[in-house]
Each structure stands twice: as structure tokens, then as C-alpha cells.
Design a protein that fits this description.
Helix content is 25%, strand content 31%. By secondary structure, the chain is of the alpha+beta class. It has a seven-stranded mixed sheet. A two-stranded antiparallel sheet has the order 4-7. The longest helix has 30 residues.
Length: 158
């Protein structure tokens, strides 16, 4: 009887440990989709591949209030962004490899090009960045986000 009790308790302990590990891993995975700037949490989508970089937020008619798209590049560089086929005005935040905000373009213009004869508006940062975060226009002003602030989250552990 003692032996079966020990086996039962051992199995319960193993089950509890596995449940805790699964829950912890799930929380870690969810944290990969959020970042924090000035105590404001954002849900983010990632743009990692060249195809995702090219498409970005093209043709989107809206972006939820505390959402954004984070463009992740392999190395730091001067990454220009254009507004071709972008239907919503954005704030663009360039972030270096340490999570420091190095430039911001506020209230970008909506693309009004309806044919290929006009050139889309392009935004180029003053400094190199490894990441670019696109959020709704006005987000940086509303949350007092400025150059020199730091982004916290999965990719930005300092």
C-alpha cells in the first residue's frame, strides 16, 4: 500500500510540474507579442521576412488602438519606409539594437497615389536602427514617447 501511495504522489507531482512548465512557456510565448513603451503595453505583429517588410500595413483600413507592427531586420542600418498603398496614418518609431528609440516620424501621410505616375511618400530616419515600429498616428504624442526612450519586451532585454 505504501508503494502505491508513493507512486500516486510522484505522478501527481510530475503532473503539477508539467502543468507549470506548460503554463510558463505559454506566458513566455504570449510575451513575445507584446512590448512596453513608457508603461504603455502594445500588442504587436511581426514583419520579419523581406515579403513581410514589403507589405507591412499596406491596404489595412485600421489598426487597433494599442497595436502595432514591428519590423525586425538582421542588422542595424538606415531603413526608409514608404507609404505606398497605406490607407491609415501612422507614427513610425525607429529602435536600435538595445531598444533605444533613435528616431520618430509622426502622423505620416496617407498614400493618395491612385496610379503609378506619382511617387509615394518616403520616411527616412536620421540614425541607424534594427527595428521599426508602426503604430497609429498620434500614439507617440498621446503617450509622450520621444527619441531616447526605451522599448521593453522580448527582443529588447537590456
Amino acid at each position: 500500500m505504501k508503494k502505491s501511495l508513493v507512486i500516486t504522489i510522484t505522478l501527481i507531482i510530475i503532473f503539477i510540474i508539467l502543468a507549470m512548465l506548460t503554463t510558463t512557456q505559454s506566458l513566455k510565448d504570449n510575451s513575445k507579442n507584446t512590448i512596453i513603451i513608457n508603461n504603455k503595453q502594445l500588442s504587436i505583429e511581426f514583419a520579419i521576412t523581406p515579403e513581410q517588410h514589403k507589405k507591412g500595413l499596406m491596404f489595412r483600413e485600421s489598426l487597433c488602438e494599442n497595436c502595432g507592427m514591428l519590423f525586425v531586420f538582421e542588422s542595424s542600418d538606415i531603413y526608409s519606409f514608404w507609404m505606398k498603398n497605406t490607407l491609415i496614418s501612422l507614427d513610425m518609431i525607429w529602435i536600435d539594437s538595445t531598444g533605444k528609440i533613435v528616431d520618430i516620424a509622426k502622423n505620416t501621410k496617407i498614400d493618395t497615389c491612385k496610379n503609378n505616375e506619382c511617387k509615394p511618400v518616403t520616411y527616412t530616419p536620421l540614425n541607424s536602427a534594427k527595428y521599426v515600429l508602426e503604430v497609429n498616428a498620434g500614439f507617440t504624442k498621446q503617450n509622450n514617447i520621444k527619441v531616447g526612450d526605451f522599448v521593453e519586451g522580448y527582443l529588447f532585454n537590456r
